[in-house]
Amino acid sequence: MSVRRLHLNAFLMGVGHHEAAWRHPVTDPARLGDVRHYQELARIAEAGGFDSVFLADGVQVWGDVEHTAAHVFEPLTLLTAMAAVTSRVGLIATVSTGYSEPYNLARWFASLDHISGGRAGWNIVTTAGDRSAQNFSLPGAPDHAERYERADEYLRVVTALWDSWADDAVLADRETGRFVDPAKVREIGHEGRFHRVRGPLNSTRSPQGHPLLVQAGSSEDGKAFAARWAEAVFTAHQTVESARKFYADLKGRLAGHGRGADSVKVLPGVVPVLGSTEEEANRLARELDELIVPARAVAQVSEMLGFDLSGHPLDRPLPPLPVTGVNGAQSRFALVRDLVERENPTLRELLSRLGGGRGHTVVVGTPERIADHIELWFTTGAADGFNVMAPLLPSGLTEFVDTVLPILRRRGLFRDDYTGTTLREHYGLARPADGFADLASAV
Amino acid sequence: MSVRRLHLNAFLMGVGHHEAAWRHPVTDPARLGDVRHYQELARIAEAGGFDSVFLADGVQVWGDVEHTAAHVFEPLTLLTAMAAVTSRVGLIATVSTGYSEPYNLARWFASLDHISGGRAGWNIVTTAGDRSAQNFSLPGAPDHAERYERADEYLRVVTALWDSWADDAVLADRETGRFVDPAKVREIGHEGRFHRVRGPLNSTRSPQGHPLLVQAGSSEDGKAFAARWAEAVFTAHQTVESARKFYADLKGRLAGHGRGADSVKVLPGVVPVLGSTEEEANRLARELDELIVPARAVAQVSEMLGFDLSGHPLDRPLPPLPVTGVNGAQSRFALVRDLVERENPTLRELLSRLGGGRGHTVVVGTPERIADHIELWFTTGAADGFNVMAPLLPSGLTEFVDTVLPILRRRGLFRDDYTGTTLREHYGLARPADGFADLASAV
């Protein structure tokens, strides 16, 4: 059996994950709107041997537009531009199951998979929030359970479309003029509660068969969905205990779907605030903290939690948060509630805790210290890899590649170079069969 | 006043526009699925100084799948990959108003416009055909008039979204932490018959303000729509008289919308079957003709006309076609009806006439002869430029650039090099204002 190795995803966000990144002197806010910035990030990640890069997304303007550095590119087009300047690194785009037709979505990802030579991944989100719904002719978003019910049907449609052409459907036989073997292309005839889709897809089967399926919801509904569909899971935890519990829970659900424990890779987020000394790292963390605009941070946390904290004094501890009752990002809500219960922070302290990683663990320290964090979580049942969220970009990603990766490699935790060409190969995941052989044998 | 010059668009399609292109020995069918082929085509077009490249599209598998060389890439992603290897040539993608949410579409084109530095264009289609509708949870397509009614509302939504951020909305003021001036971002509050869209778009205003709006329907509904919205029109004509009539008709409609005659560029299609002698060109035309699979060609013409010709003997003249009555591509239907009336062809002869350009004019001959055709149409009120449809790719495009363009330049008909950087600049079209100044003065 091969040695177990880390999987690393570079979660890219503008000029850095810290919400005040664009105000820090080492970044250049003009890069936010420049495709070459993102192409450079993809190249840095590929030079480091990252399994993939990843872009989050939403379909609305966020809370406090005045203080938010965002809103230029759409992920699939931006990742396609990154595909054009790289050859190995995987490319994971967030698209919602709520507001795009499954036929279109299946086709975009097949197209990105063709363009990139098998490097496409889809981060599946269901999209809470009425503001998003109101951009799509709906008064509000469906509730949490219905969103996941829709997502489940959506996945059945999309995967059937990806399998509507056999891998060997294209003959390209010049002699006879037969370009396609029509017995190797099928309608899907989906008639469901939310969608009716005839098919076939107007795309030949893509290099990976199915682009990698990624998911990030960690609620009960989210975990049930992930156990059925996901192949990589991004998740946010503040403590190794919480991450271990999530890891064991998710892996334990897989057998019920006839899936092996290795068929899903769990990647918690980590925000590495790096310095060559602890003092230097602490100074950077302080600098970033001081650049937070409190009003903006309060708006973001309020949006995350689904209720308004803008009236709460900054330097007073928060009241305990309710146990349930949000129709939003439920697992992120639970994370903040636990944090408030555990640490009893003032609102200002909470903003500082969340400003760097919106709930993901922030590790401030030397490269050794970051590597220790990664090793501990990786070797004690909390992670198969990490979603690396550099607070400043590109500098934080470059530093991670230059200083943390060599330590991880020295410790035998991360591979020296790519061993395959597709995203599935990087993650050690099988290529799904097209299902035509079963069909043929049944005839 | 500046000299009037040709506008040239390279209409790209697989390994060539001729339906049997992939069977001809100068093409390589493996290129159909290789993004580098399309990137090479974009580079050739840019080296020639073409205003733009263009991809058609549909949202279903076409008629005779067995004999059709198609179905790999989705246009927006493919054009993004082409954007990454070029810097001047415009990039026009076909997307239907029928099967994508306007919020998503506005965002994709804004993103492509950002990525390409202002080179995005949208070819607006309304999509006939029940097979397409059945991939999107509908039993069938709306009728012709309703499709255009929907398209009109769709354009109002999309253009309002593109104008929902002022050009100068982004402040990026590090000192104060204000990234955006919130007074320069507005909701659109659209409440229409088919769509309700709150806005604003989650994208800053793109380099062109609005990506170039292109349209290709030449029916009555199509022309009315074009007169209101289009800035470039692709159109198919078999005779210069027909093209002149269309040109005068369309330009005559513009004043009614307060638009100048120069605000829309009319580009008929031309399929140049080139040879260094007439004999060589005729030989190539014959070779391509002989590679047509009649059953496939009959299926395609039947699909185009909306009724089944598969029972008609190949070598018998066609009966007159009905005057009206199709719920499909009406103007293309009329073109074929006129051709049948004028020339009384057998079915086989009709297939040969349509095999090269699906109704667009095919010119077989030397570079001089192609240039004569272009000059005649351009200088006698039939065209502002051409949609160049090489029968074989990349060879036919390379030959056009190497042999026809020098003649057009010698004759002073085509500019020597790009004079701007955006697609709007290439076509000599103004950049739309963001509308915020009017608003401010009204306050």
Automatic annotation (TrEMBL), chains A, B:
SUPFAM superfamilies cross-referenced by the UniProt entry: Bacterial luciferase-like
Family matches, as Pfam families: Bac_luciferase (PF00296)
Binding site for FMN: 57, 94, 144, 148, 218-219
Record domain Luciferase-like: where: 32-382
Keywords, comma-separated and alphabetical: Flavoprotein, FMN, Monooxygenase, Oxidoreductase
Gene Ontology terms for molecular function: monooxygenase activity; oxidoreductase activity, acting on paired donors, with incorporation or reduction of molecular oxygen
Entry keyword Oxidoreductase: yes
Classification via Gene3D superfamilies: Luciferase-like domain
Domain of life: Bacteria
Family: Belongs to the NtaA/SnaA/DszA monooxygenase family.
Protein's name according to its UniProt entry: FMN-dependent oxidoreductase (Nitrilotriacetate monooxygenase family)
